[in-house]
Design goal:
It is built from five helices and no strands. The longest helix is centred in the last third of the chain and has 20 residues. The protein is mainly α.
């Protein structure tokens, strides 16, 4: 694993994992999403997995003619982000 992904593996709480996920560059998400997924699974952070999947979809989404992402993709990322923040505050597996 790369050092940035090792930082996620070293996180002790869901709040730390949420913070890491919010700051993680798209390039790392695209490149290391399977390793990130395994770490989130082992931590039972299901909302983190959903957020990761939404980010991967966004990274790979076809852009509109103006270069923006389709609103359906943006909405999916934003809903997953909200769910992750809730899960991190609760410390649970939402």
């Amino acid at each position: 694993m790369l050092p940035i992904v090792e930082q996620l593996a070293d996180c002790q709480t869901h709040a730390e994992r949420e913070d890491w996920l919010m700051r993680c560059p798209d390039g790392v998400v695209g490149r290391d999403h399977m390793a990130i997924r395994r770490i989130l699974q082992s931590a039972s952070l299901l909302a983190g997995i959903a957020y990761l999947e939404a980010r991967v979809a966004a990274v790979n989404a076809v852009r509109l003619a103006d270069g923006n992402l389709p609103q359906t993709v943006v909405l999916a990322v934003n809903v997953a982000r909200i769910d992750l923040k809730i899960a991190a505050r609760q410390g649970g597996c939402v």
